[in-house]
Amino acid sequence: MLQCGETLAPLEIAYQTYGTLSPQRDNAIVICHAFTGDQYVASTHPLTGKPGWWSRMVGPGLPIDTNRFFVICTNVLGGCMGTTGPTTLRADTGRPWGKDFPPITMHDIVAAQVKLVDSFKIERLFAVIGGSMGGMQTLTWVADFPERVFAAMPIATSPFQSAQNIAFNEVSRQAIYADPAWHGGDYYAHGVIPARGLAVARMMAHITYLSEDALTRKFGRQIRPGTVPDVENPLGALPFGGMFEVESYLRYQGSNFTKRFDAHSYLTISRAMDFFDLASEHGGELSAAFAGGKTRFCVISFSSDWLFPTSRSRSLVRALNQAGGNVSFVEIESDRGHDAFLLEEPDFDRTIHGFLSGAAQQAGLPGEWL
Amino acid sequence: MRLDEKIIADLIAPGSRVLDIGSGDGSLIGYLSRDKGCQAQGIELDMKAVTHSVAHGLPVMHGDADYDLADYPEGTFDYVVLQRTLQAVEHPRDVLSHMLRIGRYAVVSFPNFGHWRLRWQFLRTGRMPMTSVWPTPWYATANIHPCTIYDFFALCEEDGYEICQWMVVNEKRSSFWGRFSPKLANLLGEQALFLLKKK
């Protein structure tokens, strides 16, 4: 049953797990993936063949140590990597949902994860962790099921989607609509995908994940030497005067993305983000969403993140303090923008490891922690 | 732990809820949660120290005594600790009042500007004094609100705080003798330590 009133049945949830669930079922961590992420947090992606998106963070002996914790990561509701979404065949028509897939919210996404957690007979998760949109799910978990989350790490995220965030999403959506292959949303029936629109959407969004300094350091004003191979991407003719490295990089990112992501999923999930605003659901008081909760929080932001800037994390921390919560808050110094949470940042790793160890000690998980 | 930190730890009842403002490397809250079963958390301005503390499993948030105390609801803590920082905040009076709003007790330590060495230096040279406790020249010091033990007594009186305990703490030893002679304490004490509650 979705928030909009429609019912999705049957519901399929694609997920990966790592590590072993303890006999007491007290060592489970749910990792929530970001907008265009998936359940392959620490294992090779079946379509791209690339390592998992957080394989440097999750694994044996890593900050989220799968020797000690049982890690669950699901593909979000509305996604396109196996969980029920627009590409799923409808029970009644036998055709994919496509543009008729019902609107979903962050609460629906979390409710689907709860069903999976229930199936493991896990009463209380040791932790819920997520960056970006994964952080929105993390906050929703605690707001909706405070007793079921011992510790929460919302990372590089925000308790609401700002006008600027919505604006960027809208440009992405318009890029998809503008592709002739979109066919008014019926592209499945035409046997095509709006690859060009989806690639442009991704290119634009990708810029918002990086900082100016990161782009300058990585590409500067370099022009690609030699002739540019006729990339099999649908992004059109070579620009006049050769191709800047940054252009080439974005084209590569864009065209790769279309191989693993569906345009309807993009629209569905981006809309779920846009409608995310925890405070407005609690009479305009964000602290009310967390009132009386006992969850230990560790809020983390990155200094050069301008998509979900530190000020947003700070307002979250303020609300948690108003709710009398137990809050750690760190801003990690990094010039790599929003994406820093996916990259090598030693202070970030130490923070995650330390917070989880301290929380494990508090939760009384067996073993030496600190 | 520093001597004054040890004394503060001894003032705090086991199992209490404690907020340490300016928690530094987290040694006090670490000790309180490990050895006294307290629920201790910290606020710290220096991001490196925050990261260090969280990386060692301690609940510490980046924040500022002047701005972040206002958010906590009344009576969130049993003790709110402010070590050697009162003289460096922008609004010492507001900070104190918030401490006693969000906590039942406030533990405050500060360097005593009434110490004889400071008085003597100022009298002799006519310039801003500098000692091991006040080591920074006037143009670079973070200590924008220095006060003496007498000044602190006066503020507690004015704002209606009960002084449950107080003592002077010098680098090597602490003593209670100050209680018998505030005048001597104000002259000979390098640091002062107060345990306050609302009247």
Q: Which structural class do the helices and strands of chain B define? A: alpha/beta
Number of domains of chain B: 1
Annotated CATH homologous superfamily of the largest domain in chain A: Alpha/Beta hydrolase fold, catalytic domain
Number of strands of chain B: 8
Unreliable runs of chain B = none
Taking all residues together, what is the mean pLDDT of chain B?
93
CATH architecture of chain B: 3-Layer(aba) Sandwich
**What is the strand arrangement across the widest sheet of chain A?**
1-5-2-6-7-8-9
Number of helices of chain B: 8
What is the H level of CATH, i.e. the homologous superfamily of chain B? Vaccinia Virus protein VP39
Work out the strand percent of chain B: 15-25%
**Distance N terminus to C terminus of chain A?**
43 Å
CATH class of the largest domain in chain A: Alpha Beta
- Give the tally of structural domains of chain A: 2
- Name the shape of chain A in a single word: globular
Largest sheet: number of strands, sense, barrel closure of chain A = 7 strands, mixed
Name the chain pair with the biggest interface and residue counts per chain: A-B, 28 and 20 residues
Q: What would you call the shape of chain B? A: globular
Mean pLDDT of chain A: 94
| Rounded Rg of chain B | 16 Å
> Oligomeric status of the shown chains?
heterodimer
